[in-house]
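Run: sequence + FE2/S2 (inorganic) cluster -> complex structure.
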Amino acid sequence: MTTSERSTNYRVIGTRPVRPDGVEKVTGKAQYGADVRLPGLLHGRILRSPHAHARIVAIDTSEAEKVPGVFAVVTHRDFPAARDVVQELGESSVNAMELSDNILASKKALYRGHAVAAVAATSPHIAEEALSKIRVEYQVLPTVLDVRDAMREDAPLLNETRFTKELGGARSEKPSNIASHIRFQGGNADDAIAGADVVIEREYRTKMVHQGYIEPHNATASWNADGTVTIWTSTQGAFSVRGQVAEILRHPISSIRVIPMEIGGGFGGKLPIYLDPVAALLSKKSGRPVKVLMSRTDVFEGSGPTSGTWIKIKLGVKDGKIAGVKAELAYEAGAYPGSPVGAGSMTMLAPYAIDNFQVDGYDVCLNKPKVAAYRAPGSPAAAFALEQALDEAARAIGADPLQFRLDNSAREGVRMVTGAPLAKVGHEECVQAILDSPHYKSPIEGPYRGRGVASGYWFNGGMQSSVTAAVNPDGTVNLIEGSTDIGGSRASLSMQLAETLGIRYEDVHATVVDTDSVGHNDVTGGSRTTFASGLAVYEAGMDIRRQMRERAAREWNVPADQVEYEDGRITWSDGAGNSRETSFAEQARTAPQKGGPIVGKASLSARGVGGAYGTHLVDVEVDPDTGKVTILRYTAAQDVGTAIHPSYVEGQIQGAVAQGVGWALNEEYYFDDNGRMLNASFLDYRMPTTLDLPMIDTILVEVPNPGHPYGVRGVGEVPIVPPLAAVANAIADATGKRFTELPISPRRLVEELHGLA
Amino acid sequence: MARRTYVATTINGMPTEFLCEPRQSVLEVLRDELGLTGAKEGCNNGNCGACAVLLNGQVVNSCCVLGVELEGADVTTIEGIADGENLHPLQQAFLEEAALQCGICTPGFIVSAKALLDSNPHPDEHTVRFWLAGNLCRCTGYDKIVRAVLKAADASGAPVP
Ligand code: FES
Ligand code: FES
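>> structure
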């Protein structure tokens, strides 16, 4: 790993301190959602539809209610009528009626695993026993499981009253599974492609895959005697849970308190809610707190994975430049609208300067779980398609794949497909970093060995953050924040506050608090926390600095704007030999006597978001007999803005690469014809293990984001965008065969290499 | 409800007694009956290693062992790895190497890695990867976890063969 030379000298930023929550986690003491223990706690379990598409004719819960130890049973009938309103979830949005229907099905089960009823009992085993006594009468309906099939006019309809939202807001004539059609257009793609030297035209497919967080979803709720509701849960956004629960239960937002527990991974999958309102209703009916947990199979079948996709690309190259691109993207939304096809369409061409393009996106419903966000949602599949087409084009004109990308790279001022011009970005720097890397300069030799590269882009997010920083007399600071910490943000936020105040990292104590205890914070999603909550932390730090300068100015009887604050020292001088000095520590110690507590605050909607790029390089070896692909070496370069805590930045990149490699080689939802997922366990879904990966080298390219005082860009999502295509390009290099469909599993490889397909 | 069985065992060096149903796993007993929630449930069927504990010195997935099997056994959970306030070298290395992100897999990795280092104080990278292949982590890509285990091995002071 290398870190480029930094132009600014920071004291805390760029160091690698131990995270504040670390000791609790390595000793097993940290409390995650499933660890909640309360007096009188009941255990809730959910009954799920065995059919992928069925009308729910009747539900009889009477026998279940008689099981000794059962305290409550709920179905959709227990929910208040939901409103037809859309809620923003950060990286996705949800219609309240559809959310309510997804949490407990009303008229129809739309996928296998769709929740239909829930039980609370004194033990999980009794709850499970009671579930088996609930009688649900289903009228089974024909299913549609393939995104192209679902788009056909004669496809079984999930919702007879859904029409396609067409371009310009028009509505399709007939009901359809296509929820919406979007288009981005610029120049004239047809003409440009017609005049090109080389044209690549291909169709690509990717399968539905899961985020694969190790901690299953959980929610514990207590419906209190005064009608308020307390919820303990593992979520990417406590405030988002609060808002969604309030909407589903039609409760005032202020009467719901969400206590965020430690979270065991999310990657976008813990933005929507599944269990919280069910736990709340079970608690209301039983008069006891209720904890509802998903099993691993529930997680696969009943939470939100990301879309399988079909993408068609036609790309023309003239004189070494990308002349024009036409693309169609159809993304599976699952049971309700809301695939990330919009983001896929917007990010696909973002690494390049392309004047002539037409990108069409389709959001398609079918009998699979409703998709949720998954790390840079929509972008990896789009890059899988485009970056392979580019690789073929580069080969066709005899260009080095990296030089070709460099020659066509986007840079500051280039317009994205949305028309928005790019600010200062670092794609060229990433490609150059890979070109200069020892890995790229090393030879790759031997039969069935190959090398691939790919680039990717993600917007990153801003959104709302609130923090409070309270100064203590001993010079320590309590940083009160509301952003879920999934991968070290308590550390990265504490570091930014320490930097701003000129104090030690160890003197900042960060706590993620519940929704009653801090102003609104949007979700930890969109790679926004270190950026946007970091901005709030900086502002809160500046607020403390201002208060300390003003106090010093009052005491010294000098104008406040002549008092300086630097590195924890507060100074005044008139330039004529008169000067005064105090310090952060001194002001903290004397605050009780000199005006009372010093508390810095900030609440903001962050602007200045910096989108970011990554370029990845991978060497593979393919075993032609078994179809096994070994990752020999992997190097990922990424424009990270400024790496606040480089270890956690590297960790984000390494983790995303692992997920991307799994997506490329193994992972998929494998359905039978009736829509039953046949591999709904970790054993059969087969995520990468320690033995499937080498060490993953990272190159942190630092092109500071001009929109943040410390140059922070989001880092967590970009690195899952390139691996799918990079691995596919490497396999093409190793085997001479193009794989346009994921996963490139051993079976697919053997069939293809031996002509058995 | 099935009759509960009396079990006497030793957990983290402490003589411990409990009652459990025949169908309850060790993971359930630890978490629900004994309040030891350090072992985590990721899959409940032996596929992820988040629930790993040492049973008579051997790593087991506690979701796949029945509570009644603990009669007379010696169990070490993540809560018993540190020596009082002093972290085990593995715990220290995980902190210093940033080997955890969400941390849900961490107890299982540390327990499994301890069993490795107890039997093989100086494993090479491949041995570490082979040994830990039953523990899933979805956050880190394993790079820093493997480095942390290798660092702890170096720090342990055990003689190099
Ligand atoms: S919970 Fe025991 S192996 Fe996954
Ligand atoms: S750190 Fe999250 S699963 Fe390993």
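>> summary
Confidence is low (pLDDT under 50) at residues 1-6 of chain A. The longest helix of chain A spans residues 529-556.
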